[in-house]
Amino acid sequence: MSRDLPADARRRVVWAGLAGAGILLATGGLSGCGFALRQAPSFAFTSLRFTNYVATPVSRALQRELAAAGIQVVNTAAVAGQPPVQVVLAVLTDQRERVVVGQTTSGQVRELQLRTRFRFRLSTLSGKYLIDETEMLQERDISFTETGALAKAAEEQLMFNDMQNDIVQQIMRRLAAVKSL
């Protein structure tokens, strides 16, 4: 480093060098520990049949996500000439709940709990269970005022959509964890 630079400039050069070294060490450390960004899931099957509750919000979102991942999704019974599917995803429960958890002394609702419950199981056509009956449950608390009922209804819908997306992503990860049929 040149002595003819002011002390201020020398300090900045040293700090910039230390910051660069810190970044190199941090990225080198992350790659060495096995850290990697989440990749698109890979599945042990290429076709799947949905049974029961095929038109509910979570089921439809899951079907769209599976189709986007390259899985052939079938909602109907087997048809002659159609290749058989590899696995069956039985949707046992898909429901949304809205429960009052807080009231004022005059009985007005002040707090609600929103729940999305999804139960399913995955099996082969021969009946072998790949994923036993599993329940996914998301809960969110929301305050409520009668004066802002319209805004709260929109907020509820956003929360239900958020819970639905969380459940779909969790199910996708569980389906990707199945390694063999």
From TrEMBL:
Q: Does the keyword Lipoprotein apply?
A: yes
One term under GO cellular component? cell outer membrane
PROSITE patterns assigned to the protein according to its UniProt record, in alphabetical order: PROKAR_LIPOPROTEIN
Q: Please report the record's description of how this protein sits within the membrane.
A: Lipid-anchor
Tell me which InterPro entries the record gives.
Answer: LPS_assembly_LptE
Per its UniProt record, what Gene3D superfamilies does this chain match? Lipoprotein like domain
Molecular function in Gene Ontology: lipopolysaccharide binding
Write out the transmembrane intervals.
Answer: 12-37
Q: Does the keyword Signal apply?
A: yes
UniProt GO BP: Gram-negative-bacterium-type cell outer membrane assembly; lipopolysaccharide transport
**Keywords of the record:** Cell outer membrane, Lipoprotein, Membrane, Palmitate, Signal, Transmembrane, Transmembrane helix
> What family is reported?
Belongs to the LptE lipoprotein family.
**Protein name, please?**
LPS-assembly lipoprotein LptE
Q: Which gene encodes it?
A: lptE
